[in-house]
Structures are given as C-alpha cells and as structure tokens.
Amino acid sequence: MYTQIPLGPLQTNAYVLYNEKKEAVLFDPGGDGAAFVNWIREQKLTPQAILLTHAHFDHIGALEEVRQAFACPVYLHEAEKQWLLDPLKNGSARMGRQPIKTKPADHLLKDEGTLKVGSFSFKLFHTPGHSPGSVSYYVADENIVFSGDALFQQGIGRTDLFGGNHELLVQSIHNKLLTLPEETIVASGHGPLTTIGQEMDHNPFLNGY
C-alpha cells in the first residue's frame, strides 16, 4: 500500500509505502515537514527508513525534520553523499531559496540489486542522468517503481542542473526502467502516476531513441 503526498514549494511528490503492520518507508520528504510528520502520526505509521531517489533541494527540504521526528535512517546513493551538506550541489543555493544543509545519509547505496530495508524489499536501479546518484526503487509485489525525477508522465527529468547528463538519462530509462513489466506503475517525483507501458507508447522524449 502506498500514498502520494505532494510537498513543498515545487509540490514534489513524497511517497509513503506501508504494510498491514503499519510499518512504513518514506520517499523524498521535500517540504512541509510539520504537516508531513503530523499526517504520518495520524495514520499511526512507524517509519523504518527514509529513501531518497536523489538529493536535489526539493526532495530533501523536510529531511532533517522528518528524520529527527522518527529517528529513522536515511538512504542515498554514494555519488551524492556530499550533496546533503552542500547547498550548491543540492541546488538550494542556486534557486534563490534558503540554503539546505542536513546531516549525512546513514546508508550509502552503491550496488544495484536487492535492497532490504526493515520489513521491505526493493530492487534497486541506479538511474543517473537527472543527477549522478539518481536511483529508482522497484517493488514487484506492489507493481510500482519509485523513479524520482528520472521519468515522468510524458516527460523526463531536466539535465541542466549540476551533474546532469541528457544522454545518460535516456540510456538509464531505456536500459533500466523500460525493462520492467509494462503495467508497472511509475511513481514520479512530480505530477501524476503513469505506467511503463504508457511511457513506452506516448513519451515524446523516448520514442525513436
């Protein structure tokens, strides 16, 4: 079971994945920390971890507030291990916003494959291009992939920010995400849910590659 919750000034999608025991993992707490924490408590959920798809400012704006509220570890790809500490790299200093600095991630992701976090199991894909450490978390049992800003409904992530690479992003999408079953739900960092099949058929950035 999962819930999509847009947060922060850019309405970045946070996601909450939870089970019948009310155990949960949280994806990309981008802002509105107090409201997000209150919602989790109202649902009587017990967060076991915060999983970051990448470390851009609009995905980490409420990270420290949420981490402290639930004392749960943070997972991030090692390619962006300095980004939580550096407002230039995470983009907060470049966008005319309050610079964001947090504590380091508790766990640095490196290898693709199975990732076990508490009661949850994911297939981890490194999907760089939007940023060097972008990752996607696939949950076969839920038929969903949390893709961050790699793939959107009829769009892909921007690549004009620090560490971005358009060609690499398109390769990541084709070689990793489009290999998933076509009915797989794509839970993107912005906008509505879509599916792998819909993007294979209708995404203008992918057709004809």
UniProtKB/TrEMBL annotation:
Keywords recorded for this protein, A-Z: Hydrolase, Metal-binding, Zinc
Q: Domain of life here?
A: Bacteria
Its signal peptide is none
Question: Which metal ions or organic cofactors does this protein require, according to UniProt?
Answer: Zn(2+)
Pfam families in the cross-refs: Lactamase_B (PF00753)
The segment(s) forming the Metallo-beta-lactamase domain are 11-190
InterPro entries reported in the protein's UniProt record: MBL_Glyoxalase_II, Metallo-B-lactamas, RibonucZ/Hydroxyglut_hydro
GO MF terms listed in the record are: hydrolase activity; metal ion binding
Q: What residues form the membrane-spanning segments?
A: none
CDD domains named among the record's database cross-references: metallo-hydrolase-like_MBL-fold (cd06262)
Its recorded name reads Metallo-beta-lactamase domain-containing protein
Q: Which organism is it from?
A: Shouchella clausii (strain KSM-K16)
Taxonomic lineage of this organism? Answer: Bacteria, Bacillati, Bacillota, Bacilli, Bacillales
